[in-house]
């Protein structure tokens, strides 16, 4: 228990530093966007690859993946009758509401929490894989069908979305490397590890900076969020 509390304390301190940086304005108005995009597109894929290629792949394809798939799918399905028939939302809005019901923030908050509170970023891999490989293309396809002209090229681009997501690609490569027991040489892994070390502090600092000027919860006013730049 003390380890978990220490992990959340570390996270809170770094977020607090980010908030102070945001108040001081030392990184400029684009700090949140630059940090969050760097963490998402560069550092987080490196972290997932480094973690998964050295992890036991059974930790990814385990009960955690079944629980994630079941709970996320159930949450999405439960929203459909509420949004469609009770709230009488259009099909597109119903799809977005269903996705919001079963989609969690496993990236910019899930990775830091898994790393410091649970001890390894591999703990978040089942959630990320299911969301990026199943939920994202599924709901993107639904939205494409209900809101676009239905061109074949657009649908193919939607279905292939996981192949263009850096987190999904890095996770897939890391899992394959673990399956075939491939360990890159140290000169290759050293720079990847160095970049990976940027992921957690980068995401937490970006989150802290985004809290500067953000609306209070429940106020109804739009606020800034570090996830928007993704």
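-> sequence recovered:
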């Amino acid at each position: 228990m003390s380890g978990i509390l220490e992990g959340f304390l570390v996270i809170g301190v770094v977020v607090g530093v980010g908030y102070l940086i945001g108040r001081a304005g030392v990184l400029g108005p684009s700090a949140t966007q630059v940090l969050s995009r760097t963490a998402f597109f560069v550092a987080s894929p490196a972290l997932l690859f480094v973690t998964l290629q050295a992890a036991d792949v059974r930790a990814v394809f385990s009960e955690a993946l079944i629980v994630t798939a079941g709970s996320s799918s159930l949450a999405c399905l439960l929203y459909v009758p509420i949004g469609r028939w009770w709230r009488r939302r259009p099909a597109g809005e119903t799809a977005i509401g269903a996705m919001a019901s079963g989609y969690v923030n496993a990236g910019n908050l899930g990775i830091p929490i898994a790393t410091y509170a649970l001890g390894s970023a591999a703990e978040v891999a089942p959630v990320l894989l299911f969301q990026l490989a199943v939920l994202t293309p599924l709901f993107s396809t639904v939205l494409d069908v209900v809101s676009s002209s239905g061109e074949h090229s657009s649908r193919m681009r939607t279905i292939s979305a996981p192949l263009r997501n850096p987190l999904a690609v890095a996770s897939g490569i890391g899992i394959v490397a673990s399956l075939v027991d491939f360990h890159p040489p140290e000169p290759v892994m050293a720079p990847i590890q160095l970049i990976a070390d940027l992921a957690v502090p980068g995401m937490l600092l970006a989150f802290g900076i985004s809290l500067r000027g953000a609306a209070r919860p429940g106020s109804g006013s739009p606020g800034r969020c570090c996830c928007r730049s993704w």
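The radius of gyration is 19 Å.
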